Structures are given as C-alpha cells and as structure tokens.
Amino acid sequence: MFYTWSMNHNNSGNGSNRVSKVALQVAGNPVEDRLLADAISQQAKGAISEGGDPALSEIEATRAAFNSLLDSAAQSGLVQKLGIKTDDATLLADLKKKLEDDILNERLQLMGRGQLKPNATDADFEKVLGRPLAQIRADADKRNKEMVSTPEGRRTAVLTLAPTLLTDYYKNVTKPTDQEVKDSYNQYQFKRVLVQPPLANKPSIDDRIKAAQADIAKNVPFEQVIDKYSDEHPFTGKKARDTTIPMLQSELSMNPAYKPLLGLKPGQVSPVITVPEGKAIYKLLSVKSNLPNDFEKNKERYRQTYVATAASQKQMADLAEYKKTPGLIVFKSPPLKAFYDFMQATDNSAAADGKSEVDRVRAAYDEAVQAEAKSDGFNTRPAVLARYAASNYLWGAPGSDKAKLRPERIDTLQAVLQDSESFQARKDLFDLYMEEKKYDEAFGQLLEAAKNNTSYDRAGFQRFNDVRDMLSRLQKANGIKPEQVKQVEAAQLDWSRARAENDKMMEEQRKEQAKAAAEQQALEAKDKAEMAKAMKAAEKTKGGKAPAGKPGASTTPGTTPAPGSSVKSGGITATIVPPKTGAPKK
Questions:
Q1: CB contact set of 336 (below 8 Å; sequence gap of 6+)
Q2: Which of 141, 273, 485, 509 lies deepest, with the highest CB count within 10 Å?
Q3: DSSP state, 399?
Q4: Shortest CA distance to 320 belongs to which of 269, 225, 254?
C-alpha cells in the first residue's frame, strides 16, 4: 500500500486537479492527503459487505489503512535506526528476490483459480500472463535501477523492502543455545487478576489495580482478590477464579512485558503487568516441560522454529517501542490527527493516562468536531468518521445521558450522511426526530431509507420490514400525510420488484451452476470408468508372452502386449509391467 502511495505521489488521481498536500510525516516519510484518501477508499470498497453499514465499513477500512501506513513507515525508520545495509547492491538484490516471490505467488494464485494447471510450463504461464517472463524481469530490473538512483526512489525501495530487511536482520542476530531452545517448551500455568479500563464514574484502572495489590499484601487469598477486582471473562459456567492461563516459556521470554513472570516460583505473585486488555497481576501455579520426544533427533528443525518465532517477536516488540518515539509522527492534517487520536482513545495498550475510556473517547469526539471546523484545507472525512465512531460509543455507553447527547448525536448522523449513505444512520435519525416530535424530518429520513435499500438478502428484507414499522409509527402519531405515505409505499414496491428480479437472476445462476456441476460429475465418472477399463485390460495381459515384434510395438486384439509396451483404452494409456520371475501362480 505504502509503495503505491509513494510511487504515484505525482499523479492527480480520480480526475482531480487539486494539489495534494502532505498530511503527515512518519519517520521522515511524507504521506499526502489525497493519496491516503484514495488508498482508504480502495480498502473500503473491499470491506463493505451487502447489508452492512458503509460508514462503519469505512471506519474500519480507514483504521486498517492508517495502521498499515504507520507500520510500513515505522519499519523503514527502524531499518535506518538499526543500521541495516541499504546500499544500491543490497536494495537491487532484494528487489529482484521480491519479484521472484511475486511471480511464484502469481503462479500459485492462477493455479488456485484453475487458470493454470499444476504441471504448467513457463510457456503456459506466460500465455496466461500475456507477457514473457524474461521481459517482465528485464522491465523490473530497469525500473528498480531507475528507482534507487534518486533519493525519493531509494526511500520507496526501503519502504517496500523494510519487512524483509528486518526479518533477515532479526533472524541473523538470534542465536539461541540448545538449553534455550529446550526451555522454550516449558509450560507455565497462571491465574490472574485482570483490570480493564473502566466506564464513566468508576474508579480508574490504576486505583483498582493498586487496591488489588494492597489486598494481596495483606495475604488475602488470590482467588478472593480475583472475585473482587478481576474483569476476566471466563468460559460459560465458570468463574474468573477458575480460569487458568497456560503460556509457553517462549511467549514469556520473547515479550518484554511478560519477562517478570519468568522469575516466579510456583505460588508466587507477579508485579503489575501491562497487557493488551489492561493491567494484570499473575500468580504462578506450576511449570511443566513439554519437550517433544524427537527433540534430539530433529534439534536443528526445532532450533529454526525457535529462531523464526523469537525473531518475529523481537521485531514486533522493537517496532511497537519505536512507534512510541516522540516526534515520530508529525501531523499536518487536523482531521487525520483527530482520527488517529480516536484510535488511541480506544486502544487499551496506548492508554497510560489512567483516564476512563469514556473520558478519552469524549475528548476524541470534541477534537474531531474542532478538526472539521478547522481542517486547514485537508479532507475532513477522517474527522467525520472519528466523530461518528465516538458518538456511537458514547451513545451506547451504560448510564449515558441520551437527552443531553441527542443534539450532537443528530448533528453527527447528518454529517456522516453527507458523503456516505447509511440505512442505520437514517433509522437512528428517524428515531431521534420521532422522540422530538419533528415528524417532517422523520419522514425525510424514512423516505431516504426506503429509497436506499439496495440489499436483497436477509439484511435487505429486514430493512424492508424496518421501513414498514417506521411508517406505521408515523401513521400512529398522525405525523405523515397521505401523499407522503404513497411515496414510501412506492419505494417499497420498487424494492419488491427489484428483489423479485434479483431472485430470478440468482435462480438462473443456480441452475447454470447445477448444470455445470452435473456435467463435471459425468466427465469424472466417464474418466473413472475408462481408467478402470484400461487397468483391467492391463491386468489381463500380466504374466503373458510378448508378441513377435519390437518391444513397445502397437498391440492388436487377441495378442498379449510385451512388457514395457502400452495399452490404449478409451483415451487412457496403461504401461505393461514386466512379469515377476519364477513359476506363475495358479
């Protein structure tokens, strides 16, 4: 993704002539506003499923694209920090290797789609590709040499290759002893007190974890501390105190957060550990070795597995730490920063301020509103999405004051609908307007919801029923005119007709698929029968005398083929196996 943004930084895209501005810099790598928006748009197209909320899909696509961008840029910066070689020869060699990996992946994908046979030759492959492989390699070689000849091109090359460069680096510096590899199979069993970020008007995560520590210091049984403080979600029918957590020593040693657990002895309690879900205190129950029986025989294979895992864990840990570097991310776009801050507000691992998640999300909401008002000429959509997601969270939070939140909730839903159609947002607005007895506004949302129901699956049918229910509510409230009722009913009728056409088309497709499947089954049955016939013919000739003539000569009916010759039957060719020496069996 980042490679595409960097390579196309001078393209206008989507027919737009506006100048694209640098929205942010990550580890010195500039990212432009429009190119980031285009990449997010492409992600969103693949994320939207029929019947889903496009706005929510867009939020998730933006989150995924943004995280991918940050990781790519941070990996490039980490390459430079570690002093990994990025001279021209290294970059060109790695780009060449990457091309060969891409070619192999393309071949495998074509085979998986049935467009290329497993035993296909390079000529067959080239025919499907539409270009000779030699030409593809020559063009790539020329393009790569041009790329590394400029500072911007070199930056793009490093961004593209950073994952590979880092993987190779960490594998090379990971040199475990035999004992370390053996110890990695030790299994630890724990219980824990897990404290997660609280909702509004609840003690902070730090206050609760300190209270749990105080009880443990007073020798309160660990299970009772779990009962009192833990937010663990146990399996159905179990209690949090009954939940045990198994972890391999390799997991503990490769994750810096868990390393304090390695020094524990059974029965001992850990200091506070920061985990993705919040903060936790562990109690070690037992340690048991699960060393594989064939370890000594296949020691090298287990060593390579250890190296690969340890290198990956170390790389992820170092990257996460590097991303915390002050000044690593420099925002130029207020809307983009608002979206990033919303992501941080809902990321427990990033919440080190002790505030409740509700308070952090509220701050993110207010920032998004301000970013929309003062976007400095940047695309405001990321801020709108951040506001929508934050509003959904705040509206659904337990104990939320919906009467107080209603005005900003209405404004947020209207904002998100300006650039993206959403049945759910229409429905939510309808409910809000009904509560305020603003029936004309409620009708407007109802009509748009009816017109924009374009799903014909179960979700579409549910929307059809929702529209009918909303219409009934308006009628009961005497908030709709007869001509308005007709407009909604006409939209419902249009959907019914469109669904009938869609069902007809889908039925025709099912019939075609069933027909094709039956034909394929018949062909397979025919092939199987011909193969059986050929094998039967071959078995009859086994142990007989070879006919006159040269070995491998064609056979005629009534003769016994020579060993090594071929029998053809129904298009199937069977080679005759020479008979075993010795007396034939009766």
A1: 23, 24, 33, 36, 378, 382
A2: 273
A3: T
A4: 254
Strand 22-26 to 566-569 pairing? unpaired
Q: What is the pLDDT of residues 264-308, one digit of tens each?
A: 999 999 999 988 888 999 999 999 999 999 999 999 999 999 999
pLDDT of residue 170: 95
Sheet arrangement for strand 245-248 = 245-248, 186-195, 278-289, 273-275
Rounded-to-integer distance, Cα 583 and Cα 586, Å: 9
CB 195 within 8 Å of CB 348: no
Instruction: Give 165-196 pLDDT, tens digit per residue.
Output: 999 999 999 999 999 999 999 999 999 999 98
Query: CA-CA distance, 502 to 302, in Å (whole number)?
Result: 55
Q: Is the dihedral of CA 432, 433, 437, 443 positive or negative?
A: negative
Q: How far apart are CA 63 and CA 347, in angstroms?
A: 12
Is the distance from CB of 256 to CB of 317 less than 8 angstroms?
Answer: yes
Q: CA–CA separation, 90 vs 443, rounded Å? A: 65
Nearest partner of 205 among 393, 348, 395, 341, judged by Cα: 348
What b/e string do you get for 210-226 counting C-beta neighbours within 10 Å, with b at 16 or more? eebbebbeeeeebbebb
Is 241 within 8 Å of 250 (Cβ atoms)?
no
| pLDDT beneath 70: ranges in the chain | 1-20, 44-52, 198-202, 348-354, 542-586
Task: Look up residue 70 and give its two tokens.
Answer: 């940050």
What is the spatial distance between Cα 280 and Cα 208, in angstroms, rounded to a whole number? 11
Between CA 456 and CA 436 the distance in angstroms is 32
